[in-house]
Design brief:
The chain is mainly alpha-helical. The chain is built from 33 helices and eight strands. It has a six-stranded parallel sheet with strand order 1-3-4-5-2-6, sandwiched between helices. Strands 7-8 form a two-stranded antiparallel ribbon. The chain is globular.
Length: 808
């Protein structure tokens, strides 16, 4: 016998509003008409839509159906052409060795000895040391040797952010044509590579360069059960988590005196300037602290300026730097010698005709993430205006082509690394060099550069960065670095919009826990700097509440949003767009808590307010209407919901395009309503299209894709395709437990629907067990009176009652 009303699907969960207007007292942050756009962007941090940017959910047990929308960072790859793999394969690329690279034989012997002592079949070495000591170059030498030593696969990964690791693994899987690596889901492809590495007889080396977060990398260490592969890693951290799993750490220090002199000799000889080498070479390398980075800068300066070791050493020793670099500048323990060397290189650049422009470019670069920023940053008007020598005159603004030549100049002087193959981290700078330049800036130079960098990051940020996840991750990392360097500037006079855009981007990746941490910090910072009643503080609280709701923390979301509504109405008035938005977000949380009547009452008011204030076809009005349709469906008013949702689909296809995430979400909601109305065939057609589109655009593991599959399973169940429904729902339960946790409301809904499918298939024992768990979990997490809890209890009672006549 089937359960009453089964199968069930939940309506889409409330999602943040992406298109809203700013508070009236918000001053613009940029010139040239961008103020409205930036303000428009900022307030999107607090949004109200069930249908846009909310939690993922596919099916549910209850009176309505839900589609949640949690974004996850992902990357798309094109599958390699079919054909035989030509071994060896290099994925990276492996960095080229520096001119006059020193083999560092003693260190290599330590590495070989560590491998000999290791009892595991795979050696993961962590080459640990401070910046500028040559860790990456040593790893590159090992990788280069591997390629000439019959190793079949070498994968070089920049490991500063987890997404970069996943992306590079996925690229490697595609390059060697691994079965199952579709190119659509980077995380799945990356796992496919790890599985292959663990069992293959082919020899392989994976290099994880510059690990910054041991916890993030833990699940992604490659292993080899056949003993044919190994891993090298570089990091500045000395963290016990990096030496777990029988990994061996090799400490990388500065050059020995002999290696330092050998480097200088070979480097000068390579440029046919051996005449610059004299008997002061040992004294020079000692003064430079035998630091590879310092030697690199010194040699380049000597070559460019035709200075002998004696002349350079004298110049080095008489250079006074106290006015630019106080004693407190040496917190890293490198000594001031490297800073002096860096500034000498800047002096040489100053004598170039592009010197002034080069310094300005460097001033922006050193405020960003050392691991790299995209070349697109230098197409932003804010960046180009800032570096123009005299922007307030009739002088033409610097062009991207001019910046390209300047970046090449800075690369030649070893002040940065400029490699467009490394996009979106094409422009990199050593952290120590960046710090030295930052500390040489005057307070005014620093403040102007920080504001320009923030404006430029915001300017190049794509409107929807889920489809460019690598770029989004890099932009967030650069915003974090800038905020660390210039926290006071980015909160003067109010929070810069790039801080809010980074938070929206993090939320849209679907990484709810990190996003909650970010917005908690934003709310605290705004309250401490601007006060409890400032619009930025209220906006940050609203964004935090949206994330609480997405995390299933509905009670906390409601409590915080009721405060936001009261604050917005008191400070701005009941008809202000921010107050309307706050009520919309609160309505969505009411709906999630099962308070459907209150949700409908608020949303009908929001729709009316937005139609009056913004017009019937404004995106925010459309969003409010979509949320109202979800609430109508939850209340059993399915016909009204369908009328609204058909209109929403048409609006979004016209305004946003066929493939926009909001358009896909609108179709998904319509399919759920069709299913609830008994129009199962139409629901399946739309549902299958939504699944295909989301797998193509977002990847198979994105929460929205998981939701689409779960909703499609509900439609299959309604059509009697029970086996297909079970297959999709078992996958949905596993995916949600992994992505959202075992106690998330979405996970509970998927389990309840799976129980219904088991019952429909005659697997009554499994169905009863799952439904009993569903009832217990819902009573514990949602409360005994929540509609979903009540319905789950009714279903369980019916299944236990031989005579169903008493079940109403």
């Amino acid at each position: 016998m089937s359960a009453p009303g089964w199968p069930w699907s939940h309506p889409p969960h409330p999602a943040p509003d992406q298109n809203t207007t700013a508070t009236a007292d918000r001053p613009p942050h940029s010139k040239g008409g961008r103020a409205d756009a930036l303000l428009h962007l900022k307030v999107s941090a607090a949004s109200d839509s069930i249908a846009v940017g909310g939690n993922t959910d596919g099916s549910a047990i209850g009176t309505g159906n839900t589609v949640y929308n949690i974004h996850e960072e992902h990357t798309h790859h094109t599958t390699s052409p079919s054909g035989e793999v030509l071994w060896p394969v290099e994925v990276g690329p492996v960095p080229a060795l520096a001119t006059a690279f020193q083999p560092r034989s003693a260190l290599r012997r330590h590495i070989d000895a560590a491998r000999a002592r290791t009892t595991t079949v795979v050696l993961t070495q962590v080459l640990s040391g401070g910046g500028g000591v040559g860790k990456t170059q040593l790893a590159a030498a090992c990788a280069a040797d591997a390629l000439t030593d019959s190793v079949d696969l070498v994968v070089w990964v920049t490991a500063t952010e987890l997404q970069q690791v996943i992306t590079q693994y996925a690229q490697a899987a595609a390059r060697i044509h691994l079965p199952g690596a579709s190119g659509k889901d980077p995380q799945s492809d990356a796992r496919t590579l790890l599985d292959w590495l663990a069992t293959t007889d082919r020899r392989w080396l994976v290099v994880l360069d510059d690990i910054t977060d041991p916890a993030e990398i833990t699940p992604w260490w490659p292993t080899s059960r056949t003993g044919t592969g190994h891993v090298l890693a570089t990091t500045r951290l000395k963290d016990a988590r990096l030496t777990g799993g029988n990994r061996t750490r090799i400490d990388v220090d500065v050059y020995t005196p002999e290696e330092a002199v050998a480097y200088l000799t070979l480097r000068l000889g390579h440029d046919r300037t051996a005449h610059l080498l004299d008997d002061q070479a040992p004294a020079l390398v000692q003064a430079l602290g035998h630091l590879p980075l310092a030697l690199s800068h010194a040699a380049a300066y000597m070559v460019n300026e035709d200075l002998t070791c004696t002349q350079y050493l004298a110049h080095f020793r008489r250079t006074r730097l106290e006015h630019a670099l106080p004693d407190t500048a040496d917190a890293e323990g490198y000594g001031r010698e490297i800073t002096a060397t860096l500034l000498l290189a800047l002096e040489a650049i100053d004598r170039d005709s592009r010197g002034l422009l080069a310094r300005s470019v460097l001033h922006l670069t050193v405020l960003l993430e050392p691991a790299g920023h995209p070349r697109a940053f230098w197409t932003a008007s804010a960046a180009l205006t800032h570096v123009t020598p005299h922007p307030d005159t009739s002088q033409a603004q610097a062009t991207p082509d001019q910046i390209h030549t300047v970046l090449r100049l800075l690369d030649r002087y070893a002040l940065i690394t400029y490699d467009q193959r490394a996009e979106p981290r094409a422009v990199r700078v050593h952290a120590l060099a960046a710090r030295a330049v930052r500390e040489s800036l005057t307070a005014d130079e620093f403040a102007r550069a920080a504001r320009a960098a923030a404006d430029a990051l915001l300017e190049v940020w794509p409107e929807v960065d889920q489809v460019q996840p690598d770029l989004g991750a890099v932009l967030r990392a650069n915003t974090d670095a800038l905020a660390d360097h210039a926290p006071d500037i980015l909160w003067d006079p109010v929070g810069h919009l790039v801080l809010f855009r980074a938070g929206v981007s993090l939320r849209d990746t679907g990484l709810v826990a990190p996003a909650i941490t970010y917005w908690q910090a934003m709310a605290t910072a705004s309250r401490e700097r601007l006060g409890e009643d400032h619009s930025d503080t209220v906006s940050a609280r609203a964004s935090l509440a949206v994330l609480y709701r997405q995390a299933g923390r509905t009670g906390e979301a409601i409590e915080l949003l009721e405060r936001v509504v009261a604050d917005s109405e008191r400070l701005l008035g009941e008809d202000h767009p921010s107050a309307v938005r706050a009520r919309a977000n609160l309505a969505v949380s009411y709906w999630q808590a099962g308070r459907t009547g209150e949700a409908i009452e608020l949303l009908e008011r929001v729709v009316a307010d937005r139609e009056q204030l913004l017009g019937e076809d404004h995106p925010s009005t459309v969003r409010a209407r979509a949320n109202l349709a979800v609430s109508y469906r939850a209340a059993g008013r399915t016909g009204e919901a369908i009328v609204i949702e058909e209109r929403v689909v048409a609006n979004r296809e016209q305004l946003l395009g066929e493939d926009h995430p909001d358009t896909l979400l609108a179709r998904a909601n319509l399919a759920v309503s069709y299913g609830q109305a008994g129009r199962t065939g139409e629901a399946i057609v739309i549902g299958e299209r939504v699944v295909a589109d989301r797998e193509r655009l977002l990847g198979e593991d994105h929460p929205d894709t998981v939701t689409a599959r779960a909703n499609l399973a509900v439609s299959y169940g309604q059509a009697g395709r029970t086996r297909d429904a079970i297959e999709l729902l078992e996958r949905a339960v596993a995916d949600r437990e992994r992505l959202l946790g075992k106690d998330h409301p979405d996970t509970l809904l998927a389990r309840a629907n799976l129980a219904g499918s088991y019952w429909q298939a005659g697997r009554t024992g499994e169905a009863m067990e799952l439904m009993e768990r569903a009832v217990a979990d819902r009573e514990r997490l949602l409360g005994e009176d929540h509609p979903d809890t009540v319905i789950a209890r009714q279903v369980l009672l019916q299944w236990r009652t031989p005579d169903n006549s008493n079940i109403r």
